[in-house]
Amino acid sequence: MSSSASSAEQAERILAGLDENQACAAQVLSGPVRIIAGAGSGKTRTITRRIAYACASGAWNPDATLAVTYTNKAAAEMKLRLARMGVHDVHASTFHSAAYSQLRRAWRILSHFESPEIADPRDLALHAHAAMAHTLQLSDYTDSEVRDVLQELSWMKVNLLGYEDYERIVGSLGHELPLDLEPRQMLDVARAFETEKRRHNVIDFDDCLLLLAHLYENYEDLAEDFRQFMRHITIDEYQDVSPLQHLVLTRWLGKNRDICVVGDPAQTIYSYAGATSYYLLNFAEEFGPVSHDVQLNTDYRSSGNIVEYANAVLAGSPVASSAYITLTSPHDAGPRVHLAKFASDGEEMRGIASRILWHHARGTALRDVAILTRTRMRARDLARACREAGLAVNLRLDGENEVLRGAVSGSDGGVDVGAPSEEAGQDGAITISTIHAAKGLEWPLVFIPDCHEGNIPFSMEQMMTRSDEDEDIEEERRIFYVAVTRGIQQVYLCVAQYPFEGGRGVQRTVSRFVRQASNAVRRAHRGKS
Ligand SMILES: Nc1ncnc2c1ncn2[C@@H]1O[C@H](COP(=O)(O)OP(=O)(O)OP(=O)(O)O)[C@@H](O)[C@H]1O
């Protein structure tokens, strides 16, 4: 058989198993392509096959192909899947690791010295602490106060805010500062923080992206050299890029328009870290005319009732029709999404554990079960309660502020994946995870505890009084949507009426998202019968 015949066969094999829309997207190989892909609609499958098809058919040189993923784990997974399809040498990495390796090379070429190292998160916290102690005249800050300040320092950079604009922008956005600081005090901390990093000859991840963008702007020859390795760029999770990442992307592209972006505006859940779906939604205006613009809306993951419920969660949004897509399910309806009510938090935790044991006794493997929490604290509490009930547990916590930082450090996007549970048996362990750390994952049986106002949507009092139009509420709706769409067969929503036993504490109200969606689903079913 001739080699061109065998590579044509290989290319055909790669396309097998894609639906019509997915296959269409996989075969448009030049010019700007946008794929809006709902939850479970196979976006990872589609972009991986598209890259494999392009390389196997000879349209792209793998060594000139860059795929940007949100975590190091996703990059490794993509390389593995490509290798299984016989495609090697594609560059797959996070924004940060691609940028850092380019920065190191550029630094060596331009200065003959090594670039500054990226500081370890613990050292960064020490530098922030020193900057705070120096400018704010106090020295006993808690870890979480330092973390909040670091997040604010990062927020300034990922949003590309210059010192001169910061005060005005903070005022006009009503953006709250950590520790009740005045904007001017925050700027003093920011300057002192830069001094601290310089003194230790380190940078952070935001600096890395800023420096690289600067090099591309000022060293055109170098930029052109680097672009040879990025003739074809694919960006996954494009709904979560920050203005700073977007700036780097535009520098990587230069005049090139062989760019494919994929994302879901309904899954933007990292706004606090600068993520915005603006670039995904405005892709055609920015890079168009586009060669292909497609929506993938078949959710291959979840049963019909879960998909119906997830759609109802989004339908309650004032921006639903313009921003979000409606999913369809190719599967049977399956069990309804059920709301389980408990008297107290303690009873809720024990109730969830016993429901899991009930499913386990009927054949559900523990590795097929997840409890997804809004906060890290509740994930820890539930892990304790489930272990007490005799369940093996794997705890996944996302490091919030480290979401972007972790992308280079190898900690998988800041997700702290606890060591596999020692007590895990043959059928593994249940997963207890924050919703943020569960993004991109799936389980047959999913529990979402604490579905009450104040937790879903999460609030520090003030959010309760805001209107539904508020962007913070919208982000909380998307977080809940991400949680619901992790379920394959069955999703349980849980709520405790009071925090403590015996009706003590402030009585809870069921989450507005649950009330809206459950009512809409009930109405729809009544209409059908
Ligand atoms: N054409 C298809 N036919 C059958 N199953 C598919 C198809 N495309 C994707 N799937 C399956 O659907 C599930 C979801 O796919 P994938 O993880 O690629 O989705 P995703 O869009 O990245 O999801 P999310 O954004 O919700 O994390 C996977 O189990 C995948 O194997």
From TrEMBL:
- Tell me which EC number(s) this protein carries: 5.6.2.4
Which Gene3D superfamilies does UniProt cross-reference here?
1.10.10.160, P-loop containing nucleotide triphosphate hydrolases
| Entry annotated with the keyword Coiled coil | no
Q: Where, in this chain's numbering, is ATP bound?
A: A37, G38, A39, G40, S41, G42, K43, T44
Q: Does the keyword Isomerase apply?
A: yes
Family classification: Belongs to the helicase family. UvrD subfamily.
Protein name, as recorded: DNA 3'-5' helicase
What organism, scientifically named, is this protein from?
Alloscardovia macacae
The beginning of the lineage is: Bacteria, Bacillati, Actinomycetota, Actinomycetes, Bifidobacteriales
